[in-house]
Amino acid sequence: MKAKLTVIKVGGKIVEEETSLQKLLNDFAAIDGPKVLVHGGGRSATKMASQLGIESKMVNGRRITDADMLRVVTMVYGGLVNKNIVAGLQARGINAVGLTGADMNVILSDIRPVKDIDYGFVGDVKQVDGERLATLIQSGIIPVMAPLTHDGKGNILNTNADTIAGETAKGLAPYFDVTLIYCFEKKGVLSDEADDNSVIANINRQQFTELVEQGVIQGGMIPKLENAFQAIDAGVKEVIITAANAIDGRQGTKIR
Amino acid sequence: MKAKLTVIKVGGKIVEEETSLQKLLNDFAAIDGPKVLVHGGGRSATKMASQLGIESKMVNGRRITDADMLRVVTMVYGGLVNKNIVAGLQARGINAVGLTGADMNVILSDIRPVKDIDYGFVGDVKQVDGERLATLIQSGIIPVMAPLTHDGKGNILNTNADTIAGETAKGLAPYFDVTLIYCFEKKGVLSDEADDNSVIANINRQQFTELVEQGVIQGGMIPKLENAFQAIDAGVKEVIITAANAIDGRQGTKIR
């Protein structure tokens, strides 16, 4: 029987404000067993870029990452946000290590091909070294992953944190019973957008298809759930979509 | 018999200019056996601080690190400089991992006590987890260490890169035959300050004491050599002070 492991992805806002960060670190420290934290940092990157006179350009919610912006996200995600989380976890007795995909070559990406849009130094994940990560975790280390990968040719690449979390969960699935928890601003997948408490407790692929056809699930939730089902198909045991203040996974929407 | 390990400390300038960085990475990749790279980044931090309107204050060559400056060095050392080196080494087939002292709790520091000067968030190294580092290195990983440590209470601390290198070398001495190489702007310890080629090939403590008394060795070289002898006393096999373009340790001044 494989040991249970929890991969938690938290968005930018929660790790960028001191109060919510401290609560997150407490909550994360309280989770039993091996675990991985994947963080964003987009707001901090945008703010830092602005202070440096660099304009943030977003297309379809994704950041255009030219050479100047790459320097900013490398600093902010890989340095500022990541190292503060690691130090905060160490203070709570959690032996964390901050990783980008370049570190120990844990996540290798391809630079995104230019079609209609040139996203610049943005990576699409090609390969996760699940064995290396599993060995590290089994030695008592808790990875804290920044949304950065590398191309194996010397370039750091900006990479979506949801994708990092999903691919990491998949990469670890041969070694652990993985629960993947996506935290976001809502309490879960809602049956009524206007009612924050209308959380759908469980959802399978058939129900998902039906709910999309009925127009109940729409917009940005569709790719989130597609990713979730893809993770399940790749061996992840359970995916939970929940609020950032509920990372224990007891609430929210369970996808199996 | 213990395996040989090389700890190389390179200063700011060499890792901050693209051409010299590429040469350094080639040279570092070419070194046989397990190795550790410790880097600075002071010039980049000063430049970034200046771009953000933060003034750099130095006292006795050490940076005063207030909360704003701590953010800058955390970003620049832990993110920008460190991750670019790691990605560059991965491109050369070296399985590097970027570490601050907070990562895996490898270097714990005390915040420097305020005497005449309040250095702010500056750490004096208290403890190196040599066993953790040795295990990592024995698994084929090459640590790339940023000049940052932590206090175990959630704070990242700015820490002198020479000190990081020395303490890391000492911490690894029980597990490896460690050669510690300090790279700087001269070819080694000079017998004539005016003659760049007057490198003293070998020096022991008695010779050092004599050369200091004779006024041959003076200024900033004295603490550098004090550190070197301290490392030797703590079990490091050999310390070499050499130029940044000679990191193979075949030139420069050998301290035994």
Question: What is the molecular shape of chain A?
Answer: globular
The portion of residues forming beta strands of chain A comes to: 15-25%
Q: Please report the distance between the alpha carbons of the first and last residues of chain A.
A: 19 Å
**N-to-C SSE string of chain A, H for helix and E for strand:** EHHEHEEHEEEHEEEHEEHHEE
Instruction: Work out the number of β strands of chain A.
Output: 14
The CATH topology of chain A turns out to be: Carbamate kinase
Question: Percent helix among the residues of chain A?
Answer: 25-40%
Overall structural domain count of chain A? 1
Strand order of the largest sheet of chain A: 5-8-2-1-11-13-14-12
What oligomeric assembly is this protein in?
homodimer
Number of helical regions of chain A: 8
The CATH H-level homologous superfamily of chain A = Acetylglutamate kinase-like
CATH class descriptor of chain A:
Alpha Beta
Structural class of chain A: alpha/beta
Low-confidence stretches of chain A: none
Largest interface: A-B, 39 and 39 residues
